[in-house]
Amino acid sequence: MHTIEQGSGRRRRRTHSAAFKAEAVAACRQPGVSIAAAAMARSVNANLLRRWVVEAERAEELRRSAVKALPSPGEAFVALPMPAKTVEKTAIRIEVRRGTLTVNVHWPSSAMHECAIWLREVLK
Predict the structure, then answer these.
(1) Is the pTM of this model over 0.85?
(2) Tens digit of pLDDT for each residue in 12-46?
């Protein structure tokens, strides 16, 4: 959809909704459809529609690069050093739930590395 803004003076400018722009850009991406034909069918200038297509492509590229920049679950883990006294006196307690099954694990903190390996395998 588009509307015509009435401003002061003789110049009038049409504005188009985001939905109209998205539909026009989607039409341009169909196989065998030219931007000029899509623009003509919607009564807009082909150069304007081309600008919308370029802007949509840039926005998609920004979204893709933002998703690539997110850390993977393995990279999000940060190992924190634990004081020696705490490591010797405590145990690791883990509760894993899968559907109706619940598993409680108590692991000695002295075998922390082995626990991490086991947990990675269980969560795959």
Answers:
(1) no
(2) 788 899 999 999 999 998 899 899 999 999 999 99
Query: CA-to-CA distance for 17 and 1, rounded, in angstroms?
Result: 6
Measuring CA to CA, which residue among 117, 59, 111 is closest to residue 88?
111
CA angle 118/97/79 to nearest 5° reads 45
CA trace torsion 42, 44, 46, 48 (10° rounding): -130
Q: What angle do CA 70, 74, 80 make, to 5 degrees?
A: 105
The residue among 24, 84, 32, 82 whose CA lies nearest residue 55 is: 24
Task: Return the H-helix or E-strand segment holding 117.
Answer: helix 112-122
What CA–CA distance (Å, rounded) separates 79 from 112?
Answer: 11
**Long-range contact set of residues 81-84: C-beta below 8 Å, sequence gap at least 24:** 82/109
Could you tell me the two tokens for 85?
């006294």
Which residue has tokens 């893709």?
A: 64
Q: Please give the structure tokens belonging to residue 95.
A: 């509760």
What is the CA 42 to chain-centroid distance, rounded? 31
34/110 Cα distance (integer angstroms): 67
